[in-house]
Amino acid sequence: MSSGNITRRGKRSWRLKFEAGDRDMATGKRKTRYVTVRGTKKDAQRELIRLLAEVDHGTAVDPSRVTVAEYLWGWLESANDLSPKTIERYRQLAERQIIPHLGATLLQKLRPLQIHNWHATLLNSGGKDGKPLSARTVGHAHRVLHGARERAMRLEIISRNVAHSVPPPKPGTAEIRILSADEIVDILARIAGHPLHAVAALALGSGLRRGELCGLALGALDLHAAAVRVKRSLEETAEGLRFKPPKTHHGYRTVSLPASVVTIMRGHLRQQLEQRLALGLGRAGPDDLVFTLPNVSPYPPDKLSRDWGNLVRDRKLPNVTFHGLRHSHASALIAAGVDIVTVSRRLGHGSPAITLSIYAHLFHKTDASAALAIEGALRPRT
């Protein structure tokens, strides 16, 4: 059985030393490999156990012979710091945009020029049936490759990350389709009585994400205080549905609600109670969901988007996606002069800088009012 040891290299860095299994052709001695792991000692112990098991089972591969495709699949199979939804998306990008073009290249031999040419190929013909791929999608694929190579650097398989040397193409500045104040009022009036009326009203009134709305429990909705507490979201992957906590502490938040939305939600909860009683389920508890399918099962986020799209088409509503309701909420706040920090907190962004990067064009539209506001201070006194 192969052996190895762990040595601390820093506060959260550990060096793994172990026999690689094969022997040096010149000396006949077993080759020794060194791998650096960042995290806790338990993380290092788990990685050492995994590597030793590969050696013992004969599945360990000389890092110099590992291809981009082999490394990508291995990384995505063992990534325990990514959500299932993220892994699913990364696999799609790896399979469709990375491996067909770079997969056969040895991980240690990938060069900046190849990254540059890869970007150009994707932009010209990287889409379905050889169609051009958007710069945004190319950027997503680039970030997957970049993340994989960052891990390879930490494990000392490669010495540098060439994906860092060549930045991805910048996406265009196409504005997000949002609803005006008049359109918001009109849409809510035209869908009154429809099953999606309440969830659309709450999306517009709170700015919650689609998954946060689908994962919202009754105990997190306080209509007396006119507020909703965000503690989790419902995630949909090929493996099914699962509840997950927010990615960062900024995602945990309490959002105040307009009085009109509170009224709509009270009506929704009354209808929900009638529905449950008709199914013989009794009153809902604090852990039951606010929005469900007719059989009271969770509402899959992707289905919610499809159902909204069908409603928009059937009622000939303004062509805005369900996610666009969140953007419309942010737009209304910005137009009303709400400060960027407050907007960022309501949306659950990690920082106001993220909010500014998404909605910068909306602030440009309100710049004239800012100039008028400062005019009084600049006007000479008489």
Description:
This protein has 382 residues and is of the alpha+beta class. The protein is globular, with a radius of gyration of 26 Å. Helix content is 50%, strand content 12%. The chain folds into two domains: 4-165, DNA polymerase, domain 1, CATH 1.10.150.130; 181-368, Intergrase catalytic core (hpI Integrase, Chain A). Helix 8 (197-206) packs parallel to helix 12 (322-335) and helix 12 packs across helix 14.
The level of helicity is 40-55%
Protein structure class:
alpha+beta
Number of strands: 8
Oligomer: single chain
The pLDDT mean sits at 86
Q: Which ranges are low-confidence, i.e. pLDDT below 50, for 5 or more consecutive residues?
A: none
Spatial gap, N to C terminus: 92 Å
Strand content: 5-15%
What is the global morphology? globular
Query: Widest sheet: strand order?
Result: 1-2-3
Main sheet summary: 3 strands, antiparallel
List keywords for this structure.
50% helix; 15 helices; 3-stranded antiparallel sheet; DNA polymerase, domain 1; alpha+beta; hpI Integrase, Chain A; 382 residues
Quick structural overview:
With 382 residues, the protein is of the alpha+beta class. It is built from 15 helices and eight strands. It is 50% helix and 12% strand.
How are the SSEs placed, and which strands pair?
Elements: E1 4-10, E2 13-23, E3 30-38, H1 41-57, H2 68-78, H3 84-102, H4 112-125, H5 135-154, H6 162-165, H7 181-190, H8 197-206, H9 210-214, E4 221-222, E5 227-230, E6 233-237, E7 240-244, E8 253-256, H10 259-278, H11 301-314, H12 322-335, H13 340-347, H14 352-365, H15 367-378
Antiparallel strand pairs: 1-2, 2-3, 4-5, 5-8, 6-7
Helix pairs in contact: 2-3, 3-5, 8-10, 8-12, 12-14, 13-14
